[in-house]
Design goal:
Largest sheet: 6 strands, mixed
Number of helices: 13
Low-confidence stretches: none
Helix content: 40-55%
Strand content: 15-25%
Radius of gyration: 22 Å
Shape: globular
Number of strands: 11
Order of helices and strands: HEEHEHEHEHEHHEEHEHEHEHHH
Distance between the termini: 38 Å
Length: about 325
Amino acid sequence: MKDIKRTFDILSYYEANYNNEFALKINRNDKWEQFSIEEYRDNVDRFSLGLLEMGYSKGDKIASVSFNRPEWNFIDFGMSQIGCVHVSIYPTISDVEYRHILGHSDARILIVSSQEIYDKVYHIAKEIESLEGIYTFDELTGLNNWTELKFKGDISNEKKDLLEKRKSEILPEDLLTLIYTSGTTGLSKGVMLTHNNVVSNIKIAATVVPYLKPGDRALSFLPLCHVLERVGNYLWQYKGLVIHYPKSIESIGDDMREIKVSTFITVPRVFEKVYDKIINKGRNLKGIKKILFFWAVKLGDKFDPDPKKRSAFYDFKLKIANKLIFSKWR
């Protein structure tokens, strides 16, 4: 496969170009649950076929409210490769916004991650005429689970042929997602993004991270319903990285250290807090330690991630700074 034109092409690209043992990992109950690329593909295709079995087709809207987890990817690609439109919603918005988004988007089903979110949206979802049902990612007593949709997907050769036909009918210009954003006034506005809108960003972003290699480890914790993290989520897969989802926001630091994270996406305030903490420690040093500390800071200010743009002398100094200073920060 030469290139990607639709978001779900990324999964085929991953299969064809990378041989990582696992594609996705998540910290559940202090243990890393792992999904191979084969398991990834099986979940995606079964979900697609399950939707087709239930009569879903191109243009139908499916909403999700979930914190980051592998299942978000399974349903996202599963929807998109048959042309369904993913309405991915923040887990932390108000009842007014939930009511507006679910009604305005004409979502036919809603998939939520947990009991907590189900309890928050159930009474609202009952009011939405277009909604035909609610499903959960977590296995919860008495509630419909997303696997019910997946297990409707018969992986017979006949159904595989039908899925391939549906995939071939999805064009780069087709609607991929509705992302509701606040804008400046009033209720959230639904931004219509095509496959090409997102894929073009992935390709551009790939040119500025040449240092990332297949098998590197990405940590995903910004909400996947936000387009920045969503594009990053696709980008890491396009580059052949293994994506890790933390147990919680509070566990991010521990998870970073445990997996020796290669990259992640965050907002400026997080970087500012880390930087301030490091610099404040440097200011409390004395003598030669303080001189070496701020020499390393200035060296870091001149760092270019592209090794071709760094001189041999700079890299020599960088090795010294890594050994004496940066390793301690890490």
